[in-house]
Amino acid sequence: MMEEEEAEESPPLSPSVIEGTEEVTPPLSVSPSTIRVTEAAQDGELLTFIIVSQKLSGTGEYHVDRTYEDFDWLQQHLFSLEDVPGIQGIIFPPLPARAQQNAPVKLVRQLGLLATGETWTPYCRALGAYLQQVAGHSLLSRTQHLETFLTSPEPPGRQKVKKGLFNRLSQAVEGIRKGRPHQGTEDVDDFFRTEREHNLSLTGLSRAAAERFLEVVQTEQKIAVACGHFAASLQLCVEAGDDPGQETFSKMCVKISEIMESMKKNVQKVAENDVTTLGLGLDLECRYQEAEKEMLFRRTCKLVELETASRNAERAKPLKKAAMDGDQKAAEKDFEQVSVVAKQEVARVQRARVAVLRQALVRWCELQILTATSSAEQWNQQLLAFRGPARGPGPSS
Amino acid sequence: MDFVPCPLCLTSLLVPPFFLFPLQTTLAMFRTKTFTVRRRFSDFLGLYEKLTEKHAPNGFIVPPPPEKSIMGMTKVKVGKEDSSSGEFVERRRAALERYLQRVVCHPSLLQDPDVREFLEKEELPRAVGTQALSGAGFLKMLNKATDAVSKMTIKMNESDVWFEEKLQEVEAADQQFRKLHGMVESLVVHRKELSLNTACFSKSVAMLGSSEDNTALSRALSQLAEVEDKMEQLHQEQASCDSFSFAELIADYIRLLGSVRGSFDHRMKAWQRWQDAQTMLQKKRESEAKLLWANKPDKLQQAKDDIAEWEAKVTQYEGDFDRVSSTVRKEVVRFEVNTHIVLQRSPRAQPLIKYWDAFLPEAKAIA
């Protein structure tokens, strides 16, 4: 059956795919590619996610339960990591938006493809992908926080996150939202100039594609519902009776109702395939582009800082000159580090997203072919059954 | 009733500014001669008018023709060449063919000289008075007629419970079919929506593909856009298929049920006539009695004869109706839902598989 063919044996987004052929040696005690968010349990409004990962030592598994707050905690801690040179140049693995039961319309729209369907499965997969990306990142996976998140039986403490870098990062994000003039700053580096333009266009286009795809999926779901209603209505037409004409008619209604039911299941499966493969892929692509946009913005801010520091150093009075020069040198070093990391990250993400999309497209194709083949088979059978015994009166009045 | 093989074949032919429907008939009663005549849409409506006038009051269920469609015809007359106008003509042709088949399969109607003339005669006089069937549509007209009749205070003493039951069945069937029709229409709307959305998605994927640096991914995305384009076509076809096979047939039956209701109404009218006749008879008897008293025998006899004849005729009619209604009702119950519908359902899967199969290698080729 189709269910067995589903990607439960291999996770849809494995870090080896995402990270290319990088060797990863984190102090993490679990194997990144085995991290899975297996289910979402609901308790009133609260959603709790079960996360499973295999120990590297091969001696067993970790099962932990976490809420979205815990994920957020992890992400904030990653933003505020110290002793990571050029951290501002990192394209942070994008965390999906918060999901909740009976969410307001705005939140549902934010979640987009992840909120379609009856279950939380697509959302869980997206969360799992996020964790795998973090665990597979050479710089980010070394944090104790990740280890705690994945292995500690108690949820990580919901303490206040340290100030500092985090604040500046969030300011940068705010800056993007408010459309600060920094975005128009000319870049000193050709690579980044091109990259910024490219990223800008891809962000818009991938968002558009994801939204159109969501509309397709939603329409498929409507069709499934309509088929179901039709099947139910046909069942209501069935009546017991002596009249042979009535009997034939009733039999007909039952058969067509069955066919409509199988149509409904087919369309539902098609929609499900859409979401779990290409849907997730497009959604991740969007979030990747957004994450890169934020990184590029941070780097631009650094550039502005550098330019300001240089101007200050130039204009400084002799008394302050040394200090200003020092500042300028620090800013320069910072900016260079960020740019180095940024370049690496851009390349990493480029490899990752291409791999993600490839896998998504291939898997999408395969699943749809399976669904179509199995449906065609079923319909052929039903058609034969229909034509066979029911050789009633043909097109009469 | 035995299965009667279809003796008719209706095609369509555009002779601007009209559409003609060349009709080929091979009927046993014509001694294996095959006739081919050309008929216009208004000719079909004219035939219905004549048949209704003659036979409906006798309780026959005269099959209704397809509705006039001003929008559809205008498009065609203007010569708008698009898929929807082609579809419209095909739908009309199929509907007219089904209509004729019903007429021809009705043993009594087949005997009617107007029907013979319709099938045989080269040139028919231009049908007039077909305006009644345009505008709001046949269904609405029937609704109004039925409402009007039920508002008439005909309190009929139903002696035969069969009719009461049947009428309830017909009304229930009518409701069911209208509901089904609504469902099918909704399904068609959604499929058309899917077609549109697929087209939009295809365009956005194409744009994404052309902005993509990685050549293999770019090519794959372009291919995907093409596949989605083809899917859009498929969805469109499926939508018109559903519409064609399901919706049209259900609409046919809703109209037919309207005719059945009409026959019940005629029966009621006949009953009313009968009642009126009886009242009249009573009056005549009273006046006869008066005349007897006044001693005028010659006028008397005539009155008596008239009345007796009249009463007998009406009683005969009612019996007739019962018989006819019963027979025709049985015909209608054997609905045509069978063959046409299901056959259209399944073929869609095959082309789908072909498209996916073609796309898969492209997707895999992305490095």
TrEMBL record, chain B:
GO terms for biological process: early endosome to Golgi transport; protein transport. Keywords: Protein transport, Transport. Residues 1-126 form the PX domain. It holds the Pfam family Vps5. The keyword Protein transport applies. InterPro entries: AH/BAR_dom_sf, PX_dom, PX_dom_sf, Vps5_C. GO terms for cellular component: cytosol; endosome membrane; Golgi apparatus; membrane protein complex. One of its GO terms (molecular function) is phosphatidylinositol binding. Belongs to the sorting nexin family. This is PX domain-containing protein. It comes from Gadus morhua.
